Amino acid sequence: MAKFHVTATVNGEEVEYLCDPQQTLLDVLRDELNLTGTKEGCSSGDCGACSVILDGRLVCSCLALGAELDGAEIETIEGMAEGDELHPLQQKFLEEAALQCGFCTPGFLVAAKNLLERNPDPTETEVRYWLAGNLCRCTGYDKIIRSVLDVAAEMRGS
User: Fold this and answer.
1) Of 2, 13, 37, 76, which has the highest C-beta tally within 10 A?
2) CATH number at residue 126
3) 9, 55 contact by CB (below 8 A)
4) Boundary-marking domain end, from 79, 105, 126
5) How far apart are CA 105 and CA 86, in angstroms?
6) Are 66 and 28 in contact (CB under 8 A)?
7) How many C-beta atoms surround the C-beta of residue 90 within 10 A?
8) What predicted TM-score, i.e. pTM, was given to this entire model?
9) Whole-number Å distance between alpha carbons of 49 and 150
10) Given this model, what pLDDT does residue 138 score?
11) Which residues of the chain have pLDDT under 70?
């Protein structure tokens, strides 16, 4: 089986990789690019653990084929922080203990970042709706929702 040569931008850097036609973006990120922050949960697009931003849209990386992403722009959890400085969402999740085991946290953070880029003043209902595709088995969602709303307010200067 022939491998595909793909050039894409991942977290602001141009990357090249070879992948099999059946490899998902999740497989490529973890196995070819060694970006292991994106987690594999369900492999069917139901849990949100593998959420990434693909060309500005929130997607489950387990549902996108790596071979089809030539020229794509991809943002993962590894691209959220700037050097040693955490993104405000990452910092707030830590401060508010909006995580327990942490397995789902990268997906929630990427999804929340995408929401705030699209809507800097979301209502609680809008946050809950946007994050409905992300599942957590360890903690209630209240601290996660509250953290997103708090960051939205801080980023607006409220």
Assistant:
1) 76
2) 1.10.150.120
3) no
4) 79
5) 14
6) yes
7) 20
8) 0.95
9) 22
10) 87
11) 158
Q: Do the beta carbons of residue 58 and residue 64 sit within 8 Å?
A: no
Torsion from C-alpha of 108, 83, 118, 56, nearest 10 degrees: -90
Predicted confidence at residue 139, as pLDDT, reads 77
Domain shared by 9 and 68, yes or no: yes
Instruction: Judge whether 111 and 48 are in contact, CB under 8 Å.
Output: yes
Domain membership of residue 92 as a residue range: 88-156
Judge if 63 and 103 occupy the same domain: no
Angle at 136 between CA 35 and CA 114, to 5 degrees: 55
Beta bridge partners of 75: 53
Q: Which helix (H) or strand (E) element contains residue 75?
A: strand 73-75
Residues 21-33: tens digit of each pLDDT: 999 999 999 999 9
pLDDT recorded at residue 19: 96
Number of structural domains, the chain?
2
Together in a domain, 43 and 63: yes
DSSP SS3 for 137: coil
Do 63 and 10 fall within a single domain?
yes
Whether residue 28 sits in one domain with residue 92: no
